[in-house]
Amino acid sequence: MPAKGCIVRRDLSVVGGGVIGLSCALAAADRGWSVTVFDAGAQRRAAHVAGGMLGCFGEGRPGEDALLAVAAESASAWPDFLARLGDPAVRVADDSLLVAASSADLAELDDQVSFVRAQLPDATITAESAAEMRRAEVTLTRNIAGGYLASGEGAVDNRRLLDALRSAAEEAGVRFVTAEITDAAEVPGDQVLVAAGLGTPQVTSVGELPMRGEKGEILRLRRTRWAVPPPARVIRARWHGRPLYVVPRADGVVVGATQYEAVGPDDRAPQAGGVADLLADAGELMPGLRTYELVEVAAGIRPSSADGLPVVRRIDDRVIVATGHGRNGIALAPWTANRVAGLLT
Ligand SMILES: Cc1cc2nc3c(=O)[nH]c(=O)nc-3n(C[C@H](O)[C@H](O)[C@H](O)COP(=O)(O)OP(=O)(O)OC[C@H]3O[C@@H](n4cnc5c(N)ncnc54)[C@H](O)[C@@H]3O)c2cc1C
């Protein structure tokens, strides 16, 4: 028994150093846990390639009521989460424009917005005419049918976020080990959090965990000297039936993303067709992007659960799992960190 008045620091091992593992590690360290993160490296990290949108209203899809509720809860936790990191440059946009190319695209967007408003009556989404949208973002094409402004729904620079999380965690005493873990029993600690994204079900001790990999191509474009500036807001478009987004960065934009079933856990080579579609659609949506430099073509795999909801739960009295965040892992990071902190308590 510890002496009276003595503080006992309990040890937590986190398997996975993506956005979920890092957010949970920081939350646990802030609550007095002694934390070590074991991570296999950035190569298989979806958070490294992601767009960084903090999607809530713009992600709402009819039928996904529970996911929308979780996203709304996470959205309300973002201001404190960012304040904890102390790097204002992590946030790259405050609002999103939801843009439709045609009347058919607009009808789909209307359905989406009706669904969101029915679930979240206080949702800050307002209809915008094509002219209003072009006034807000002058680099948008004239050929749009209309859309909505989602106020307060912005984006972060995902790579800057990962760096800021790691720095904050290191300052809070978190240790980092580069290693691929095959069994939670391999790592020390009173508690183990397995937050290894798509790699989570391969870690023995986690048990049966059905997951799907949803692959997506994504591009990074850099502004050149004579090019138009990047948009100030996230532009999320329905472009002739295809989803498309342009997310600002300090030096350019991220253009994404395709979405289809990965054929295996290492299926990360970008397909020519997906890249061609993104380039063509982005060039139509914002013609000024055609003079940007194409500096990165990548593909990642979204770690998705069977029902599309994040899996954050206790497996046994030592192991907790946090994975299955699919297309929303960045947006859902603060919610997940709070939930894991609750499970640890
Ligand atoms: C193209 C694309 C665009 C996206 N855009 C967005 C977006 O705009 N907004 C948003 O919210 N989300 C977006 N996402 C989804 C988001 O990236 C994921 O949901 C999120 O990264 C999941 O976080 P994670 O920490 O669970 O997994 P990851 O980010 O994949 O990290 C998992 C980590 O675990 C490590 N690991 C794996 N197995 C082991 C092991 N056995 N031992 C040790 N370490 C291991 C890996 O090396 C990796 O570092 C996008 C995803 C893709 C692919």
CATH class: Alpha Beta
Structural class call reads alpha/beta
Low-confidence stretches: none
CATH superfamily grouping: FAD/NAD(P)-binding domain
User: Outline, from the CA principal axes?
Assistant: globular
Strand content: 25-35%
What binds here, in terms of ligands, is: flavin-adenine dinucleotide
Count of extended strands? 17
CATH T-level fold name? FAD/NAD(P)-binding domain
GO molecular function, one term: oxidoreductase activity
Domain FAD dependent oxidoreductase: 11-341
Organism: Gordonia malaquae NBRC 108250
InterPro entries: FAD-dep_OxRdtase, FAD/NAD-bd_sf
Describe the overall structure.
The chain starts with 10 loop residues before the first strand and ends with a helix. Strand 11 and strand 12 form a beta hairpin. The protein has 345 residues and is of the alpha/beta class. The chain contains eight helices and 17 strands. It is globular and about 60 Å long. The chain has helices at 19-30, 46-49, 65-85, 103-119, 130-136, 158-171, 272-285, 333-344; strands at 11-15, 34-39, 91-93, 96-100, 125-128, 146-150, 155-156, 175-178, 191-194, 211-222, 234-239, 242-249, 252-256, 260-261, 293-305, 311-314, 319-323. The protein has a single domain (11-344), classed as FAD/NAD(P)-binding domain (3-Layer(bba) Sandwich), CATH 3.50.50.60. The mean pLDDT is 95. The strands form three sheets. Strands 4, 5, 6, 10, 11, 12, 13, 14 and 15 form a nine-stranded mixed beta sheet that branches. Strands 8-2-1-9-17-16 form a six-stranded mixed beta sheet, covered by helices on one side. It has a two-stranded antiparallel sheet with strand order 3-7. Helix 1 (19-30) packs parallel to helix 6 (158-171), helix 1 (19-30) crosses helix 8 and helix 3 (65-85) crosses helix 8. The structure holds flavin-adenine dinucleotide (FAD). The site of flavin-adenine dinucleotide (FAD) has 45 residues, from helix 1, strand 2, helix 2, strand 10 and strand 15.
